[in-house]
């Protein structure tokens, strides 16, 4: 992840500043030994605020525009085009200024009506509550209470519906409706008030009958934890490999190894208005920021958490950040600071870089000390690289300063130094957060980069061109699962980009050396495994029956008549008839798994793929075509459990 894109204001500014320095002046920067000194030096070169015309601006909120959008929404609603009405009401709500409280309440009420007709009752109820919180007019209150009652009725929550119908009768007293219209609504509500007690009684009887069954299902309905680490995993450390994941016991395919929320995450600009900026969930009914129209939220909880921390400082600056060409890495570097107070970092200052790995591992995910010691390769960076990152840090710090972050001018260089540090560690430790996007339900789909996240535990996993795991995302939470059998005491590796089945060794190694500064020594690189398209289907790679004492591979032609093969290493004989029979079973399983996968039965397909992998692991040794096809199927099924979206096909 680079720090900027070429089509922005920052690259031009960076070039201009660098060209203004003669060799002697730049050598002063080169001689500096820490990030705080570097930040102080670059800050002294000039005011980035003036040169890039940095200014906090809250654009997009416009009552005149909001009224026009509401009118379009009302027209669509009257024509019973509910989805179209929802789109206009969403835009109207996002455009309404903070001070127009009651108008916002009416927009939310209108949106709840569209949601009711779309049978999205929980979302409708949420908007009704928000409308009430925004001073919805008393004389119109009967509309909300009656709609609320209808939502509960549709959800079969008869007790709540009854209370809302009673509230409707009371609310009608404050309405300005003509007498005849009011009386009709009262009669309708009263009919439901008389009928619902019978439904409530029936519901109680049914609840008693099903209570045992519900108790039995609690385990399957349990909430997914924010953090989980498989107990067999531990983190080793060597001079050459750094810290890396290792397993104490054998791991089967499809074992969940890690669930982790990010220490920090940020969305790409292109997805900032259809995903929650806080948790990355796709949003169809957004919660707006009170001041800007640059981000949306999926819930009041996410909006509250964001505005209580980082968004209060980013709000009004995001268009500047995006327009500068700053990469997602820069946004995360900024948010690593803005999500905590200045006092928080000042208090941590004496401990940064001084904790043991054991102490760091016990820290919560949001503790800055947990990520501070992640690799930065600072000592091997070129002076030009450090200068560009330091200059970017001054831009990020200017956003903090203009956003009223911090009140200790004497600590500005310390915070600036942390920004430079963040920009370095994110380059090697951040992950792209993805979503599977399809144009149509039948489309195979494409894994799409929607944002970035820093996952402290995941960052410790080393790379292999033949990884033992795959990862996918639910919102911005990462899930890591095994895609093959991993023997006890083995490294558990993920993949940083190139797979050996798709990219040749020299290209893989060049990419990894350039992006991550290491020469890959995984098995596919050491032995130079062939690409998938170059694997020879006419030979089978059998595992020697010598067990753990022999790791030899028996290369057997697919058409063979001798079923007892002697190992040239250990001398043991292997009966390959059992293996050939297993391969026939695998062929049937693969056809079944592929059919289930194509029909959307992902759990069932996954079980078939796992059965195949376990069977093949007993008798075959990779690289082998069927083995890697099965892994591909496993990964494909697992991605379906993560973020996914099918675009709506427009009706003609």
Condensed summary:
The protein has 652 residues and is an alpha+beta fold.
Summarize the topology:
Blueprint: H1 9-19, H2 23-30, H3 35-43, H4 48-51, H5 63-78, H6 82-95, H7 101-117, H8 121-133, H9 141-154, H10 158-171, H11 179-216, E1 228-229, E2 233-238, E3 242-247, E4 256-260, E5 264-267, E6 287-288, E7 296-297, H12 300-307, H13 311-314, H14 318-323, H15 328-338, H16 342-348, H17 357-361, H18 369-372, H19 383-402, H20 412-429, E8 430-438, E9 446-454, E10 469-474, E11 477-482, H21 505-516, H22 523-527, E12 539-543, E13 553-557, E14 564-566, E15 573-575, H23 576-598, H24 602-619, H25 625-639, E16 644-646
Parallel strand pairs: 8-16
Antiparallel strand pairs: 1-4, 2-3, 4-11, 5-9, 6-7, 8-9, 10-11, 12-13, 14-15
Name the structural class: alpha+beta
Uncertain spans: 210-222
Percentage of residues in strands: 5-15%
* Helix proportion: 40-55%
Mean pLDDT: 91
Main beta sheet strand tally, sense and closure: 4 strands, antiparallel
Q: What's the tally of helices?
A: 25
Overall 3D form: flat
Strand order of the largest sheet: 1-4-11-10
Q: How many β-strands, per DSSP?
A: 16
- Rounded Rg: 30 Å
């Amino acid at each position: 992840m680079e720090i900027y894109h070429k089509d922005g204001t920052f690259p031009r500014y960076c070039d201009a500043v660098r060209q203004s320095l003669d060799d002697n002046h730049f050598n002063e920067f080169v001689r500096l030994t820490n990030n705080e000194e570097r930040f102080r030096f670059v800050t002294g070169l000039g005011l980035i605020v003036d040169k890039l015309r940095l200014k906090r601006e809250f654009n997009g909120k416009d009552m005149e525009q909001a009224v026009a959008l509401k009118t379009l929404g009302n027209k669509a609603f009257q024509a019973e085009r509910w989805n179209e009405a929802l789109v206009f009401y969403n835009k109207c709500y996002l455009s309404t200024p903070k001070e127009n409280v009651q108008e916002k309440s009416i927009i939310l009420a209108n949106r709840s009506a569209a949601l009711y007709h779309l049978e999205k009752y929980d979302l409708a109820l949420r908007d009704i509550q928000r409308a009430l919180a925004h001073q919805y007019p008393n004389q119109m209150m009967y509309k909300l209470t009656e709609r609320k009652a209808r939502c509960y009725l549709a959800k079969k929550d008869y007790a709540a519906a009854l209370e809302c119908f009673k509230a409707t009768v009371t609310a009608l007293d404050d309405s300005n409706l003509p007498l005849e219209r009011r009386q009709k609504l009262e009669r309708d509500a009263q009919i439901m008030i008389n009928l619902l007690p019978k439904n409530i009684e029936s519901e109680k009887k049914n609840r008693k009958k099903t209570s045992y069954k519900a108790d039995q299902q609690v385990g399957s309905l349990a909430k997914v934890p924010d953090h989980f680490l498989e107990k067999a995993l531990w983190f080793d450390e060597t001079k050459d490999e750094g810290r890396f994941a290792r397993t104490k016991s054998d791991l089967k395919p499809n074992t969940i190894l890690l669930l982790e929320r990010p220490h920090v995450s940020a969305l790409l600009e292109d997805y900032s208005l259809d995903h929650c900026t806080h948790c990355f969930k796709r949003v169809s009914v957004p919660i707006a920021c009170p001041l800007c129209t640059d981000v949306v939220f999926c819930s009041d909880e996410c909006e509250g958490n964001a505005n209580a921390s980082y968004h209060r400082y980013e709000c009004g600056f995001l268009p500047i950040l995006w327009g500068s060409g700053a990469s997602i890495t820069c946004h995360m570097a900024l948010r690593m600071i803005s999500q905590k107070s200045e006092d928080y970092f000042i208090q941590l200052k004496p401990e940064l870089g001084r904790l043991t790995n054991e102490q760091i591992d016990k820290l919560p995910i949001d503790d800055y000390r947990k990520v501070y010691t992640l690799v930065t390769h600072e000592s091997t960076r070129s002076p030009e690289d450090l200068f560009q990152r330091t200059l970017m840090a001054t831009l990020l710090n200017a956003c903090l300063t203009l956003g009223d972050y911090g009140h200790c001018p004497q600590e500005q260089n310390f915070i600036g130094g942390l920004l430079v540090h963040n920009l370095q560690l994110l380059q090697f430790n951040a992950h792209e957060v993805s979503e599977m996007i399809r144009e149509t339900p039948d489309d195979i789909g494409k894994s799409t980069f929607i944002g970035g996240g820093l996952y402290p535990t995941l960052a410790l996993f080393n790379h292999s061109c033949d990884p033992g795991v795959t990862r996918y995302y639910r919102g911005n939470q990462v899930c890591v699962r095994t895609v093959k059998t991993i023997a006890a005491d083995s490294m558990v590796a993920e993949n940083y980009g190139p797979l050996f089945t798709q990219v040749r060794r020299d290209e893989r190694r060049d990419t990894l050396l350039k992006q991550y500064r290491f020469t890959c020594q995984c098995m596919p690189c050491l032995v130079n495994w062939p690409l998938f398209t170059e694997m020879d289907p006419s030979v089978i790679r059998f595992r020697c029956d010598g067990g753990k004492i022999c790791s030899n591979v028996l290369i057997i032609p697919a058409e063979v008549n001798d079923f007892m093969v002697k190992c040239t290493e250990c001398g043991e004989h292997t009966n390959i008839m059992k293996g050939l029979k297993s391969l026939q079973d695998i062929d049937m399983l693969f056809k079944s798994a592929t059919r289930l996968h194509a029909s959307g039965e992902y759990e069932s397909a996954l079980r078939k793929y796992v059965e195949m992998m376990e069977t093949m692991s007993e008798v075959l040794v990779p690289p082998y075509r069927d083995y890697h096809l099965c892994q591909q199927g496993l990964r494909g099924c697992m991605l379906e459990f993560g973020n996914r979206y099918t675009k709506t096909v427009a009706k003609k």
